[in-house]
Amino acid sequence: MNPRSRSRRWLLTAALTALAALMIFPIYWMAVSALTPGGQSQSREFYLWPDDPTTANFVEVFSTQPVWQWLGNSLFVAVIGTALSVCVSLGAGYALAKFRFFGRGLIYAAFLVTIMMPIQVTLVPAFLVVARIGLVDSPWAVILPTLFDVVGIFIARQFMLGVPDPLLEAARLDGAGELRTFLKVVLPTCGPLVGVLVILGFMTRWNDFLWPLVVLQGNENFTVPVGLSTLTNNPAFSSPWGAVMAVATVTVLPLLMVFLVFQRQFVQGIASSGIK
């Protein structure tokens, strides 16, 4: 390697390292604030590490608020909702990519139009439907309206367009039905796609705030984002930011775990789907 190429490589490495540090710093600052009594809002001086780190914020908020219940609700909504949504996205993506039927293009175009539609447009009709079937203040009120993930269906269709048609025809000639062809031939090739759908679906449901805020009413039924919003005006805390940062630090951990587990499939799936 010549000196010019080596210097360019070192510059690129330094730039990427600085960018990574810039992206990670808010998470680090959040953890430092959680270990500071009252959070960093109690001090006018900015510091990278507290002089006397303590877990008092964690103890206080977890002992006075149903944080474990919030975490359990969020975990239930995220895991069950993501699992069901991935199944729906795989099935719908396979049908739109490999089946020929009347109105397929119109249905696909309608799916794409809904991506541009803000959630505020469908908020009231969706709430009325949920209220009519008696699911208000239930985790299923959060899960069921989000099963049809248009972005997930779009990604699944783009990925399955790359599955060779002769492979499916060979399975059908061997006597396999459509369900068996999908489960035995198509699904084993969808590891990267599943990784993408799991990460995006879990992250979306774990961080969702507006829809759970509308349909969940009891304090113990809140998800973590909704529960966090109640801490800022809670009279139980003299300075709520330490409690907020403590809960936020804990809630980041499931997202990191899911990403670390599926990161390889995520990168492969994004590349295979043709989405940059």
TrEMBL record:
Keywords per UniProt: Cell membrane, Membrane, Transmembrane, Transmembrane helix, Transport
Residue stretches spanning the membrane: 75-97, 106-128, 140-160, 181-203, 241-262
InterPro entries, A to Z: MetI-like, MetI-like_sf
Membrane topology field: Multi-pass membrane protein
Record-stated family: Belongs to the binding-protein-dependent transport system permease family.
Listed name of the protein: Carbohydrate ABC transporter permease
Subcellular location: Cell membrane
Classification lineage: Bacteria, Bacillati, Actinomycetota, Actinomycetes, Micrococcales
Highest taxon listed in the record's lineage: Bacteria
Nucleotide-binding recorded as keyword: no
Residue intervals of the ABC transmembrane type-1 domain: 71-262
Major place of residence: membrane
Pfam families noted in UniProt: BPD_transp_1 (PF00528)
